Amino acid sequence: MDGLFTDGPDTCKTVMTEEGGHDCDEDDLPDISVLKLSSQSEQIFSPASDDEELPLIKHGESITDRRSTFQPHLSAVENPKQVQRVLNKLYENKKIASATHNIYAYRIYCQEKNSVLQDCEDDGETAAGGRLLHLLQILDVRNVLVVVSRWYGGILLGPDRFKHINNCARTILIQEGYADSTEETSKAGGKSKKPKSKKTK
């Protein structure tokens, strides 16, 4: 995991170029209900070597489409070290670690510099991290890490996979109070199309 943040705050890394041709049986898909943790077990303290508490990790509702399952995870973070600690804690969960892709993006407001530190990771799902980061920018959320885990079900979803990743992220951001409502967020992100006028001679 060393070097996750070496490319700088405004970059997004891409690892693979397509969804991939993974063959997967329905029996191989994880039981997402196992990821729902009780509120007591969500708050986990770090080892004695670190002074900071591990930020609370929230797990959102999953979306399943054509045997692919998407589930969002969210944590309030204040520095890149907390981002790394949350990611490490998530990867300790065997179900999350076994996901085909764990796409994430975060934005952290640096008050003393009056700037935003942000980064993203595709984890092999081409351009997904950048799209997730773009959603966080549109919603202007700060001090938050959003991870979307995808378990590939054997059927290519095409562009629908990006819709599911962003819908998962948007839903958990709304549930946790980082964004207002679906109507307002869709207005902020949508571009109005003007009808093309026909040229006359």
User: Helicity range of the residues?
Assistant: 25-40%
Based on DSSP secondary structure assignment, what is the total number of beta strands?
7
Q: What is the beta-strand fraction?
A: 15-25%
Order of helices and strands: EHEEEHHEEHEHH
- Helix vs. strand class: alpha+beta
**Poorly predicted residue ranges:** 1-24, 32-49, 187-198
Q: Tell me the Rg in angstroms.
A: 18 Å
Number of helices: 6
What overall geometry do the principal axes of the alpha carbons give? globular
- The separation of the N and C termini measures 62 Å
Mean pLDDT: 77
Main beta-sheet annotation:
7 strands, mixed
Structure explained in plain terms:
The protein has helices at residues 39-42, 80-92, 94-97, 128-139, 160-175, 182-189, and strands at residues 12-13, 57-59, 63-65, 68-76, 101-110, 115-121, 144-151. The longest helix is centred in the last third of the chain and has 16 residues, at 160-175. By secondary structure, it is of the alpha+beta class. Strands 1, 2, 3, 4, 5, 6 and 7 form a seven-stranded mixed β-sheet that branches. Mean pLDDT is 77; it is low at 1-24, 32-49 and 187-198. This is Protein IMPACT isoform X4. It comes from Danio rerio (Zebrafish).
Topology:
Layout: E1 12-13, H1 39-42, E2 57-59, E3 63-65, E4 68-76, H2 80-92, H3 94-97, E5 101-110, E6 115-121, H4 128-139, E7 144-151, H5 160-175, H6 182-189
Parallel strand pairs: 1-6
Antiparallel strand pairs: 2-4, 3-4, 4-7, 5-6, 5-7
Keywords:
201 residues, 7-stranded mixed beta sheet, 28% helix, 6 helices, alpha+beta
